[in-house]
Amino acid sequence: MKIKKIIIKGIVQGVGFRPFIYRIGRDNNLRGYVKNMGNYVEIVVSGEDRDIKNFLRDIRDKKPPLAQIDKIEVLDYNTPLHYRNFVIEDSGSKTDKDGSTVPPDVSICEECLREMWDKNNRRYRYPFIACTNCGPRFTIVKRLPYDRENTSMAQFPLCEECLREYRDPLDRRFHAQATCCPNCGPRVYLVDNEGKVLDEGDGAILESVKLLNEGYILAVKGIGGTHLACRCDIDDVVLKLRERLNRPTQPFAVMTKEENVKLFAEVDEEELSLLRSPKRPIVVLKKGRDYSRYFSEYISNLDTVGVMLPYSGLHYLLLEGSEALGYVMTSANLPGYPMVIDNREILHKLRGITDYFLIHNREIVNRCDDSVLKKVNNRVVFLRRSRGYVPEPVVVVNHRDIRENMENIIAVGPEMNSTACLVKGNRFYLSQHIGNTSKYETFRYLSEGIENLLRITNTKDIHGVVCDLHPGYNSTKLAEELAERFDAELYRIQHHMAHAYSLLGDEDIFQESIIIAIDGVGYGEDGKVWGGEILRYRDNHMERVGHLEEQYMPGGDLCTEYPLRMLMSILYKRLGEEELLEFIRSYNFFDDRTLELILFQLDREINVVETTSCGRVLDAISAMLSICHRKTYDGEPAIRLEGFVRGRGYGEREYNRYLEMAKEDIKIKSGKLITSDLVYRAYSMLLEGYEREFIGLYIHLAIGEGLSSMAIKFGEKEGVEYIGITGGVSYNSIICKVVKERVEEEGFKFLYHSRVPNGDGGISFGQGIGYILNRD
C-alpha cells in the first residue's frame, strides 16, 4: 500500500471538484480525504499503486466541465493514514502563494433549466436556481476559501431540503454555494419610481413581462449588475431609453432566445457556439436581411448588432412571455460611470431613467459587465473581457523570464476602457471591465477591483506596480499610492508599447517582431500624442521605428469630440485659406467665429497638440463624409465610418481597384506615412463625385497598405519573422485584412489577439508583461 499527498491548483473551487474526487476515490478503492484549502485542493490517498495511478488519470480525463487544472503535485506522505474509506473533509484555512482562484460566473445549466420549467419541481419558475455546474461565483464571493459563509449567500440559511442536497456528496448541489430554493433563497421585487413594492416573487416577474410588453423601461438587477431593458421593436421606446440615458447613438445589445438569432443576424457555427457557451458573452453579429422586421433601427446604426442569449433563470422567465423577439439589454450606468448594483443606488440613480425596477435582495459583491466578442477576419477577439471570463488567469509560458517570474505585480491599466491586472508568477489575472477612470466613481471602482483581485487570490505582498507614462492619469496616481503602500517598485510604460507587449503575451510568442500599434490616443515618449506607431521588439525591449505623419489637433481634445476640427487641420496643409473655409462651411456645423479661432490656432500654432493618431485620421474622413460630426462614445466616428463602408457593401472588383489607387498614393518619408496626402486625395474624390462608401473604402485600404508597407520594410531590414497589429483601431476589419494579407504575402507570420482585448482593456496585461521583461 502506498500513501500519496496530492496538491491541485487551478479553478478547482466552486465547480464540483470535491464530490468528483470523492466519487473517483471510491471508484478506485482508495482511502483518504479531499479538502478545500484557502486557494487550492489537498488530497491524501492510500491504496495500491495501480489504483492511485488510475485515480490520477481520472482526475485529468474526467474532471468537471467547469474545472481547470493548472498544476498537480504528487508527494510521498509518510504519516499514518487512519481512514477506513474516502471522505470529504471540511475546508481548511491554509493558503498558498501560488494557489488558485474562484471560477467565473456561468449561465444556468440545462438540468437547472429543466427543473425551473417543471411544474412538479419545488424550484418551478424560481429565478435563482443554481447548482455546482452553474450560476454566480465571482460576483458573490467575498474571500477564500470559496465556501457559502464567504459569499453573499451566507445571509440565506438553507432550508432542510436544500441542506440535505448540500451535504450529499452524490448530489449535484453538494457544496454548491449559490444553491437555494423559494423557501430559503433570495426573492425578486417589482418596485415603482416612488420606491413602493408592487409585487414580489413570481408575481413580480409576470407583471414585469406585462410592463415590458406595454412599452415600459425596466431596471433589471441580475447576477453581476443591473440592466436597463425594453422592447426591441418599437422606435419610440428605444428612443426614450436613449434620451433618458443621454446615449444618443452608442449601439445597444439585445437579448433573445437561441432559436431567434438566425431570423435577424448572420451567424456561423463558431459565433453560435460562443453564444451558447456557459460564458454567454455578447457576440457582435452582422445584421441579417430581415433585421429591420424585428428590431428598431435605433438599436444600432452600424452594420452589426450585439446579441446575447439569456444566462440566468430570471432572463429566461422574462423572455418567455415577451411579445417582441427580445429585449434591449444595456448596462444601467450613465456614460463613463460603473453599473449600479446596490438596491438603494439603483432606486436613487436610475429614477427618471427607468419606469419600474425589478430588483432582488442578494448582494452583488463584485460587479461584472457582460463580455463582448467579435469576429474579425475569421478570428474571435475580445472587445471587452469580463463576465464569464474573469477571474480566469491568462497564462504565459514561452518566455523564460515570465515563466520563472517569482514576483507579484499590479498593473493599473490606462485611463479609458480600463482593466487592472494582477500578475502572480506567469499567471495574469485581469479584472473585470472597469471603464473611464477619469470619473471619480470609476476610479474608486478600479481601486476596489484591485483589492478584490488581491483578496480572492490571497495575495499579501506586491513587488512591482506598473502604470501608464501619462503623468496626469488618475490610474497613475493610484499606482504611486500602491507602490508606497507595498514598498514596491513603480514602473511606467508607454501606452503603445504596452499594447505591443500585450500582443506578444497574448500570442505567447516573443521572437523579434515588428508591431503596428494603432488607436486614438496615447501619451508618447516625446510628450506628443501617439496613435499610429511602428514598433520593433528585440531583446525584451520596444523601440519606435516609424509612425504616421504628425498632425495638429487645434483645441486639443476638442478634436476627438468634433472631428471636423481634425479634418480642417489636415486639409490646412494642402488647401488655401479661402478654399478650406468654404469647404468646412459647407457642413453648416461651425459658426464663423469658431472657424476663425481654429484657423488662428493653426496659423500661430497656439493651443495645438501634435498627434500621430490613426484614429484621428479616420475621424476626419468620417466627418468629411458626414457620417459623424460629434463623438458621443469612445471611437464613434471611426467605428461608424467602418460600419458605413461595410454596410453599403463592396465587391472584389471595387476592393482591388481602390487598393491599387491606394498603393499609388502611399508616400513614406523618413519612416512616416504621409496621411495629409491620403486625406487630400479623399477630398479630391469627394469633389469629383465619387460615392461616399468608396471614398471610405479607399482611406481604409490606404491606411492598411501604408502601415503594412512600413512594417514590411522594417521587418526586412531587421530580419524578423513576425509582424503583428494591436490597439483599438486593429478591430477594424478592413484595415486588419489588408495588413494580414500583405505581411503574409511577403512571408511574415501574422500576430493578432485572441485571449485579451486588442484595445485599452488589454493594456494592463501588456503593462505586466513589459514590467517583467524590462525590470532591473
Short description:
This protein has 776 residues and is α/β, with parallel strands linked by helices. Helix 15 (495-507) packs across helix 26.
Low-confidence stretches: none
Shape: globular
Helix content: 25-40%
- Approximate strand percentage: 15-25%
CATH uppermost class of one domain: Alpha Beta
Mean pLDDT: 94
| Tally of individual helices | 26
Radius of gyration based on Cα positions: 28 Å
Number of strands: 32
What is the annotated CATH architecture of one domain?
Answer: Alpha-Beta Complex
Overall structural class, as computed from helix and strand content, comes to alpha/beta
N/C terminus separation: 50 Å
CATH-defined topology of one domain:
DHBP synthase
Question: Keyphrases for this structure?
Answer:
Nucleotidyltransferase, domain 5, 36% helix, twelve-stranded mixed sheet, 32 strands, DHBP synthase, 26 helices, seven-stranded mixed sheet, single chain, 21% strand, Alpha-Beta Plaits, 776 residues, alpha/beta
What does this protein structure show overall?
This protein is of the alpha/beta class. Among the domains are: 87 residues, Alpha-Beta Plaits (2-Layer Sandwich); 173 residues, DHBP synthase, CATH 3.90.870.40; 113 residues, 2-Layer Sandwich (Nucleotidyltransferase, domain 5); 151 residues, Orthogonal Bundle (Tetracycline Repressor, domain 2), CATH 1.10.357.160. β16 and β17 form a beta hairpin. The model has no long low-confidence stretch (mean pLDDT 94).
